């Protein structure tokens, strides 16, 4: 069976044409040497399903085998009518033009050969192409241009989220082609975490979440650069169902999974119990992948760093600080019923009270950054935290915490490994992971240093005096440090 491993798109500005070419299974082709399941899968009725509303058996197979296809009800193809009134199609022995949105008529031999010739110019292998040419109608110039622009933006992630497509080429007449090829490699021994390098300049951290009902794993995807995790472009964030939905997210990363969309296929149906079950399985598998990544990076950071293409300044602590930062944007969502829009599913996947992936990680590993300097910078687990630094002590820029953190009484009463910054503490409380965490202030630290007898010896006096001198603006308002 031929494999749809390459897709090409071209645009002619003069004639307002987009041609989409792939080399997967031809339309209505159901038989191959060594393959006899096409009729059972309904491959002989492809064209009928593409042109008929609310008719599809895609993904419905005898027995309980995992899903091996993408999409349903022909909605993906029907979207071409937004930009073209009479799309032309050549696929194997079929050559037709669609009129009225549902009626195929034979394409002239000359037009069919023209499309086949264009397809053959892009590949040297003896493959059977499928070409869909969209001729723009009056008034669609901007829409056609926007369509290709949107495709180009999405192309790198399409090579990661698609079942088989690993190379995408976008070609505009008069310009050099843009090529994206996904070169993906494992970052962990178990293969749950990969690095996808696409098109030479784009790198992505991918958590591969195997699903019990689908041969293709779900993917949690973060943008990578030489320093570690970075923000994914806003138009790529949120939920994907192979292609992007309109469900953008405040979190700067993306999730691809076989969620069930609403009738318009632009949003997921949050009231669909099946979507919650899918999300629960994704969260559980992501949690396992996070644990695998944490353990391997803690044991062999240099090996991981080399595989991910990180520069020498990146280290274990900065890496996990970045993971924390990108998964803690906004108040944590602990219950599915509180999700109001699809983009919030990302938050829920991380912090759900039962299966949240990040919740599982910070409960079982020391993966929480304290956001404190010096001896107090060591990462901690949720169960170890007893204190959070607040008020003047939490304003690290004033240097107060850096000064008092050297004191023996401070380290004894509020030991490193058990204290975090107020911002981290607030998030953990909202995630119901704070336990009996107490807030500590500069006043409490001073009381601890002076002691219950309120007796100050020369050493204590010197330390307190140094604090007053080095943080003068805190104690004498209007005075410079």
Keywords:
481 residues; alpha+beta; 15-stranded mixed β-sheet; three-stranded parallel β-sheet; 16 helices; 18 strands; 20% strand
What does this structure look like?
- The protein is of the alpha+beta class and 481 residues long.
- The chain is 32% helix and 20% strand.
- The protein has 16 helices and 18 strands.
- The strands form 2 sheets. It has a 15-stranded mixed beta sheet that branches. A 3-stranded parallel beta sheet has the order 17-16-18.
- Helix 5 crosses helix 6 (301-308) and helix 5 runs parallel beside helix 9.
- The longest helix is centred in the middle third of the chain and has 27 residues, at 273-299.
- The radius of gyration is 29 Å and the shape is elongated.
- Mean pLDDT is 87; it is low at 1-5.
């Amino acid at each position: 069976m031929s494999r749809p491993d390459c897709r090409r798109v071209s645009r002619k500005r003069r004639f307002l044409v987009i041609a989409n070419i792939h080399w997967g299974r031809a339309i209505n082709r159901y038989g191959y040497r060594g393959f006899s399941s096409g009729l059972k899968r309904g491959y002989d009725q492809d064209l009928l399903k593409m042109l008929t509303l609310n008719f599809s058996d895609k993904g419905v197979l005898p027995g309980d085998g995992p899903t091996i296809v993408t999409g349903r009800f022909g909605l993906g193809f029907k979207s071409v009518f937004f930009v073209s009134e009479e799309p032309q199609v050549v696929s194997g022995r079929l050559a037709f033009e669609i009129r009225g949105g549902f009626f195929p008529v034979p394409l002239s031999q000359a037009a069919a050969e023209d499309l086949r010739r264009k397809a053959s110019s892009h590949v040297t292998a003896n493959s059977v192409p499928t070409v869909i040419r969209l001729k723009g109608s009056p008034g669609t110039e901007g829409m056609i241009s926007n369509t290709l622009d949107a495709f180009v933006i999405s192309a790198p992630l399409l090579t990661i989220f698609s079942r088989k497509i690993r190379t995408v080429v976008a070609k505009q007449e008069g310009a050099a082609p843009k090529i994206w090829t996904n070169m993906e490699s494992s970052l962990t021994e178990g293969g749950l975490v990969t690095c996808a390098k696409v098109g030479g300049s784009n790198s992505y951290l991918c958590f591969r979440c195997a699903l019990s009902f689908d041969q293709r794993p779900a993917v949690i995807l973060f943008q990578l650069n030489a320093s570690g995790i970075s923000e994914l472009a806003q138009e790529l964030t949120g939920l994907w169902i192979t292609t992007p939905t309109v469900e953008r997210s405040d979190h700067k990363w993306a999730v691809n999974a076989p969620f069930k969309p609403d009738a318009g296929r632009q949003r997921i149906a949050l009231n669909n119990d099946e979507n919650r079950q899918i999300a629960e399985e994704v969260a559980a598998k992501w949690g396992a992948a996070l644990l695998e990544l944490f353990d391997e990076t803690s044991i062999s950071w240099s090996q991981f760093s080399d595989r991910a293409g990180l520069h020498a300044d990146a280290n274990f602590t900065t890496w996990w600080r970045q993971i924390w930062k990108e998964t803690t944007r906004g108040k944590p969502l602990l219950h599915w019923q509180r999700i109001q829009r699809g983009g919030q599913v990302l938050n829920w996947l991380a912090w759900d009270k039962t299966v949240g992936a990040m919740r599982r990680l910070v409960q079982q590993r020391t993966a929480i950054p304290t956001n404190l300097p010096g001896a107090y910078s060591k990462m901690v687990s949720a169960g170890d935290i007893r204190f959070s630094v607040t008020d003047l002590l939490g304003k690290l820029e004033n240097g107060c915490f850096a000064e008092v953190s050297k004191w023996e009484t401070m380290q004894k009463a509020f030991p490193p490994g058990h204290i975090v910054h107020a911002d981290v503490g607030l998030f953990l409380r909202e995630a119901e992971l704070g336990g009996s965490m107490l807030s500590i202030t500069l006043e409490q630290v001073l009381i601890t240093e002076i002691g219950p007898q309120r007796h100050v010896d020369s050493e204590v006096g010197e330390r307190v005096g140094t604090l007053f001198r080095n943080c003068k603006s805190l104690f004498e308002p209007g005075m410079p440090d």
